[in-house]
Amino acid sequence: MVAGGMSGGPSGEFEGKITATVIISCMMAATGGLMFGYDVGVSGGVTSMPSFLKDFFPVVYNKTQEKTPTESNYCKYDNQGLQLFTSSLYFAALLASLVASPVTRKLGRKWTMFVAGIFFIVGTILNAAAVNMGMLISGRLLLGCGVGFANQAVPVFLSEIAPTRIRGALNILFQLNCTIGILLANIINWLTAKIEGGYGWRVSLAIAGGPALILTIGALMVDDTPNSLIERGKLEEGKKVLRKIRGVENVEPEYLQLVEASEVAKQVKNPFRNLLKRNNRPPLVIAIWLQIFQQFTGINAIMFYAPVLFNTLGFKSDAALYSAVINGAVNVLSTVVSIYFVDKAGRRILLLEACVQMLLSQTVIAVILGLKLKDDTPSLSSGLAILVVILVCTFVAGFAWSWGPLGWLIPSETFPLETRSAGQSVTVFTNMLFTAIIAQGFLSMLCTMKFAIFVFFSGWVVAMMFFTIFLIPETKGIPIEEMMERVWSKHWFWKRYVENYGSAN
User: Fold this and answer.
1) Where are the transmembrane segments (predicted)?
2) CA angle, corner 39, sides to 38 and 42, nearest 5?
């Protein structure tokens, strides 16, 4: 694929301004991340509320109320039904992501985000009004469909609409909104846990409807991306939107490149089958492993079950929720750090630095828990408990400025247009699959492995470090339609897979 007449700068940057249209569109689209993050954060707080447990999981409730525990402190929340409440959303999301791929390609990014918002609204109503397990799980399944559609469309929308020089920062708005959603969920859980009458958990679940409404209404107001419009044959509309978002009249070089990419895309009748071609292997392998590694850092184990985890360490319920709020605040602030550095320092340096930080944090947590939290010692001393909270926050900070946002950014910017929807679908599917596995298995793993669960996650962090060093290329400052020529074809390992890219398509 040729460059198609760039403006001539050394970075390959096309002519254009950072327009208000781009900023507003990206902020609106990124509310899909707000919904996702809120649902990640809200489940952990809700499942630690006695009123919720009493209504839906009385066996777990009775365990937590025992004055003299009859089993290990690590095991009191181990319940498959309780884990299914959390994981059901992600099992639904991984299936929805496969449907979302052709929807994104045929209807565009804009309408896929609209559909995601509708799923979220209906799921929220069912959850907040639940009177039995059927309503509760049905609501979570619909929320999962919303996550599948939003996570499919939003990162691609952000990457396609953003100017190259700030693509990383704008794409990370999705992850920033995820972290804000988690923080809001933690704060709301902390507040609603104080509501008398036992309905605080309903308020927590109902508030998820707020960001869902923002995304649904916002999707109706924004333009679809030029890439999507041109891919669907709306050439003039695509050029008009391109002028609007770039803020200049001379968009011909970028427009011609998008048309060329669209012509290549139209020749691909089955994008998923095309993904398996040799030349698409580099971005596919990177995308899949980024999602696997992202989950096996242990981050979602902490985010889903932070209040439960802190309860396990001996915090009282209110203190556990408060600690989760601190954790969420660190998550947000650290993601802002990533927005600032991702287009300056690059992707690889953030990934590598975070590996070291996460490894040290989890290793020390494992040592403290292994030495001090025994079955006959139901809690840590206040000093050690505070140290564990600090270490968890250190771990979360490292993840939040690296593997969290970059796990979504890198796949969304490296697939060629002809396989971008399918590639993002596989990315979301893999992420949701391993998120669901962690959500369904963490409390049982905590019961079985005890403190060694942090050793388990540390081993994965070491593997991530070597994977980054040898196989993840730097994509900072490369126009999105030039990744094949300027990134994969020049990488010491991946170049063997793309040598015949031009003739293969």
Assistant:
1) 20-38, 81-99, 111-131, 137-158, 170-191, 203-222, 284-308, 320-342, 349-371, 383-404, 425-445, 451-472
2) 80
User: Which H or E element spans position 211?
Assistant: helix 209-221
* Residue keyed to tokens 């979360």: 396
Within 10 angstroms of residue 487's Cβ, the number of other Cβ atoms is 20
Domains along the chain with CATH numbers: 20-504 (1.20.1250.20)
Q: pLDDT for 428-461, tens place per residue?
A: 889 889 988 887 888 788 888 888 888 999 999 9
Which pTM does this prediction carry? 0.76
Tokens of 31: 């509310």
Nearest 10 degrees: Cα torsion 424, 437, 351, 359: 180
Q: In this structure, are residues 406 and 306 in contact, taking their beta carbons and an 8 Å threshold?
A: no
What region does 19 belong to: left with phi over 0, alpha with psi -120 to 50, or beta?
A: beta
201/307 Cα distance (integer angstroms): 14
Q: Do 488 and 495 contact (CB within 8 A), yes or no?
A: yes
Q: Say which residues have a Cβ less than 8 Å from residue 59's Cβ, sequence separation at least 6.
A: 79
In this predicted model, what pLDDT tens digit does every residue of 350-368 receive, in sequence order? 999 999 999 999 999 888 8
Nearest to 451 by CA among 391, 369, 392: 369
Token pair belonging to 61 = 């409730």
Checking phi first, is residue 57 left (phi over 0); if not, alpha (psi -120 to 50) or beta? Answer: beta
Q: Give the integer Cα–Cα distance in Å for 423 and 152.
A: 9
Place of tokens 């992850």: 175
pLDDT digits (tens, 9 = 90+) for 379-397: 667 788 788 888 889 999 9
Q: For helices 317-341 and 299-312, what crossing angle results, to 10°?
A: 150
Token digits for 279? 């030349």
- List for the chain the helix, strand, coil content (%; round to 5): 80, 0, 20
